[in-house]
Amino acid sequence: MGNCHTVGPNEALVVSGGCCGSDEKSYTVGGWAWAWWLITDIQKITLEIMTLQPKCEDVETAEGVAITVTGVAQVKVMTDKELLGYACEQFLGKTVAEIKSVILQTLEGHLRSILGTLTVEQIYQDRDQFAKLVREVAAPDVGRMGIEILSFTIKDVYDKVEYLSSLGKSQTAAVQRDADIGVAEAERDAGIREAECKKEMMDVKFQADTKMADSKRELEMQKAAFNQEVNTKKAEAQLAYELQAAKEQQKIRLEEIEIEVVQRKKQISIEEKEILRTDKELIATVRRPAEAEAYKMEQLAEARKIKKVLTAQAEAEKIKRIGEAEAGSIEAVGKAEAEKMRLKAEAYQQYGEAAKTALVLEALPKIAEKVSAPLGRTSEIVILSGDSGRVTGEMNRLLAELPVTVNALTGVDLTKIPLLQKMKNPQA
After folding, report:
1. How far lies 273's CA from each of 264, 280, 286, in Å?
2. Subunit composition (predicted)?
3. What is the C-alpha end-to-end distance of the chain, expressed in Å?
4. pLDDT one-digit tens code per residue, 20-48
5. Nearest to 368 by CA among 415, 405, 422, 394
6. pLDDT tens track for 284-308
């Protein structure tokens, strides 16, 4: 993005910079211009008239008289594109006071140098001519700065030694001098007439000498023309020889170029064959082994895939067979258990109380095992008693209490079993 900048007719707008490092500059006087952000620079320079007052104090003239001269100059920046570019190079970014200072120093330098070449009378009596001379001398220098001198006038001329006031006194002496000059002029006229007569005589002699010189010159010119013609022919012959030699040299060079072309074609053919050989070598040493390795890896991957599939199928079949075997085994066990329970039920129904007692008797060892499990972890039992018969009595007591305990737990009265009755009353 950018901005639109405008200037009045008394200013010039300078746009510099641009895309891709451009060094192009555009100048706009009394108009508008577009400037991009960041990549272009906008500056202005004034076109207004600048008034300067150059002053040279105590400058010695051609006669050595020290005088002081002041002047007034009107200058401005020129609007021609090329000259405006010069002015921008010199003064862009400077203030009006700085521009005035540079131009003023230039004008004062030229004014001082011109004062040293003129007399006081020339400066004082013909100020316009003096100012014109200053403009003519200073204009090229300030013009190279892009500055135009519109006007330059002498404002004042004075001195500190009253030389100018003495010029009036010199006028009286000038009248006397004019009288003396009149006498001298009369004498001069007589001398001039005498000189004219001598001149006429010399003119006649000069004309005669001139005719002789003309004849001699024509002769020399004819000789020079003949020599020129001879030299021309020699030069043409030499040029023709050099031209023919150049043509022969060109033919030789063409033959050498053709030989180089043939050699280059052979070299290109050899390089193409070398490229083909290198390509085949790369195919044989790199591409083929790589393709073989890729094929090998592909086959190995396919084999591993098939192996996994077969292994999974075998595992699934194994699980299936195991499941079927376990199902069959469970079914057979279930049938056997069912048959066993059926037979037990029939036996219980048939034998009644005897069957129940048998079940209790079968369970007693298991109960005794569970009850004595804590004692099974005991390595030794010591019964403290001084009476050996007391131990036997304790054992008998425990056995006597067993039927009561079983009856309380199961409801089966062991005392009614004939075998236990015999164990209780061995005499019967």
Report:
1. 14, 11, 19
2. Heterooligomeric complex.
3. 133
4. 555 677 777 777 776 666 666 677 778 88
5. 405
6. 787 777 777 788 888 888 888 888 8
